């Protein structure tokens, strides 16, 4: 996820998006901004029963299906995971594996009184040693010769709303970012609106689905403030998912959640914690290939090293969330780094 990294958040029509999933990824959904103010807790299972099956030419059924994939409409959350490897991409050289990338999401959804999809949850992402698979707190940078502290990713307040219009969003509220979700597949209708229609394709007993975003915006980790951590004035992270979902589970409206497994690809500049800004390969990039999955929906979906570290250090990220208000504004890796890591200069 979405990195559930999968979903680094949830999206409003003019919302903000944070990434992990990140990451939300995330093995989870990366969430986008939601309206401010709090709301009463909904009844459990808040997805309307509009009859069996799906009409995926309609935005309302796309919203229902999207929430059911990433999360659940039940009164307790589901957990998803992701795990894989990140590679260095430098010029025309072959890709070099650097470290593992693992994480999880904790997600729950509802359809509100306006027919909009609300999502809430948390997400976490860590980096691992390729040989042992264990989480690393320090990394020996082969390009600078420096041992650097690894900064994991945590999203404590994943909240948001999706409407029947395909969202445009900006990472961390960047004023020069205006990213259209699923830009390759989104289509404007005769009214000049891009409806929330996702590229679902049914093949035998499975649905195939692509979900992605690609950013370009001003780097909050500025070269002036962090000459080692910053790779330049602009950054362009993107995440790309290809989902496989059992058709019977997605179409069954009595089932509050549907399993999925997905391929999860991520490209970006170097993570700021790598301190690559003054190396000869500053303009290189990262490529990640991961599995993202929600199979049982229980804690055993979370990679072992992630679950053990969260139970020890961040158990609140595993807890069910309350309320559907905006909560903490979701932020991506660079936004969090610029806020939490002191300037070098």
The biggest beta sheet, please?
9 strands, antiparallel
Number of helices: 4
If you average the pLDDT, what whole number results?
Answer: 86
List the secondary-structure elements in sequence, H or E. EHEEEEEEEEEEEEEHEEHH
Biggest sheet strand line-up: 7-4-3-2-16-15-14-11-10
As residue ranges, the low-confidence spans are 1-51
Structural class: mainly beta
Rg over alpha carbons: 19 Å
Proportion of residues in β-strands: 25-35%
Overall geometry? globular
First CA to last CA: what distance? 35 Å
Helix content: 10-25%
Number of beta-strand segments: 16
Question: Which structural traits does this protein have?
Answer:
345 residues; mainly beta; nine-stranded antiparallel sheet; three-stranded mixed sheet; globular
Task: Report on the architecture of this protein.
- It is a single chain.
- This protein is mainly beta and 345 residues long.
- Helix content is 10%, strand content 31%.
- It contains four helices and 16 strands.
- Strands 7-4-3-2-16-15-14-11-10 form a nine-stranded antiparallel beta sheet. The protein has a three-stranded mixed beta sheet with strand order 1-8-9, with no helix packed on it.
- The radius of gyration is 19 Å and the shape is globular.
Summarize the structure.
The protein is mainly beta and 345 residues long. It has 4 helices and 16 strands. It has helices at residues 59-70, 247-251, 304-313, 333-340, and strands at residues 16-17, 78-89, 96-111, 117-128, 138-140, 147-149, 153-162, 168-171, 179-180, 201-203, 206-214, 217-218, 234-235, 238-246, 260-268, 285-294.
């Amino acid at each position: 996820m979405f990195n559930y990294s999968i979903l680094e958040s949830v999206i409003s029509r003019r919302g903000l998006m944070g990434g992990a999933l990140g990451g939300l990824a995330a093995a989870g959904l990366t969430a986008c901004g939601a309206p401010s103010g709090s709301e009463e807790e909904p009844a459990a299972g808040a997805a309307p029963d509009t009859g069996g099956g799906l009409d995926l030419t309609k935005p309302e059924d796309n919203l229902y299906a999207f929430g059911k994939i990433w999360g659940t409409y039940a009164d307790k959350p589901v957990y998803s995971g992701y795990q894989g490897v990140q590679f260095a991409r430098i010029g025309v050289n072959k890709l070099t594996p650097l470290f593992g990338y693992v994480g999880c999401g904790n997600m729950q959804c509802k359809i509100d009184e306006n027919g909009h999809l609300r999502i809430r949850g948390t997400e976490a992402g860590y980096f691992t040693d390729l040989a042992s698979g264990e989480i690393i707190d320090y990394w020996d940078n082969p390009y600078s010769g420096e041992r650097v502290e690894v900064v994991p990713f945590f999203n404590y307040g994943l909240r948001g709303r999706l409407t029947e219009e395909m969202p445009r969003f900006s990472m961390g509220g960047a004023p020069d970012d205006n990213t259209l979700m699923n830009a390759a597949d989104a289509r404007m209708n005769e009214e000049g609106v891009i409806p929330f229609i996702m590229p679902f394709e049914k093949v035998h007993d499975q649905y195939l689905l692509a979900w992605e975003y690609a950013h370009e915006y001003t780097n909050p980790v500025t070269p002036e403030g962090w000459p080692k951590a910053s790779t330049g004035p602009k950054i362009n992270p993107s995440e790309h998912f290809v989902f496989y979902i059992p058709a019977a589970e997605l179409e069954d409206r009595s089932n509050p959640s549907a399993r999925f497994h997905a391929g999860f690809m991520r490209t970006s500049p170097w993570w700021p914690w790598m301190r690559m800004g003054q190396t000869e390969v500053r303009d290189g990039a990262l490529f990640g290939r991961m599995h993202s999955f929600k199979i049982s929906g229980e804690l055993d979906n979370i990679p072992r090293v992630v679950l053990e570290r969260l139970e020890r250090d961040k158990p609140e990220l595993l807890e069910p969330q309350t309320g559907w208000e905006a909560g903490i504004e979701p932020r991506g890796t660079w936004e969090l780094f610029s806020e939490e890591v002191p300037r070098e200069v």
